[in-house]
Amino acid sequence: xxxxxxxxxxxxxxxxxxxxxxxxxxxxxxxxxxxxxxxxxxxxxxxxxxxxxxxxxxxxxxxxxxxxxxxxxxxxxxxxxxxxxxxxxxxxxxxxxxxxxxxxxxxxxxxxxxxxxxxxxxxxxxxxxxxxxxxxxxxxxxxxxxxxxxxxxxxxxxxxxxxxxxxxxxxxxxxxxxxxxxxxxxxxxxxxxxxxxxxxxxxxxxxxxxxxxxxxxxxxxxxxxxxxxxxxxxxxxxxxxxxxxxxxxxxxx
Length: 253
Ligand SMILES: Nc1ncnc2c1ncn2[C@@H]1O[C@H](COP(=O)(O)OP(=O)(O)OP(=O)(O)O)[C@@H](O)[C@H]1O
What we know:
CATH topology of the domain at 5-88 and 168-248: Rossmann fold
Mean pLDDT: 94
Bound molecules: adenosine-5'-triphosphate
Oligomer: single chain
């Protein structure tokens, strides 16, 4: 059963430096599920992900037309507030970027910015998020030690905990396991599967096995257009479109 769409993209077009990068994108991304964006290198996966939290605002020579509705609010409307939009989303990039401070302060950073000062409230937020990301037992004895001393896999989970601490609705991941070893990759994948009960998760991945393992839905993008969107089994095992079939079989990369 298709779940209620949380992100609805309507007639979205993106031009960068005069090039038509995303073409007439129309899609509804279901709530409380994992949706993976797949497609060949340079097809526009990351650009599409960036339109969901207005990260393209920081790119030069970009024009975006159309609408992206999150919770029925058009995030590209003239009065839309970027800070309010981004508060709804946690972003996990390819490599972890912990802030140059302690493990505790990384997780408490967002809540503090949003005005939480009470120590016991912050303590319980930090503990909850570190437990939710499976880090608590590994770091509880060194919460006030520097975050950059953690392994890369732990740092990535810490970045996820930092994002979750401001209670987003959506988690965006851009090839967020590409810098990780296989064990850390599995840990993050398991986390996504567990977290989808509470969050809507949209991931860019070029690893089809990963997309198959953890996604409920797949978006296949080719040269800036959505070729196919549907439940994972349908798109990967019984694609409707010849282009998808060729990509899944590895004939296009
Ligand atoms: N800031 C930018 N300036 C100029 N061109 C850009 C910029 N960002 C993206 N592009 C172009 O937009 C197209 C899509 O890029 P994008 O990063 O979205 O693709 P992708 O599918 O995520 O690729 P990959 O899998 O290789 O990361 C590419 O042709 C890229 O060169």
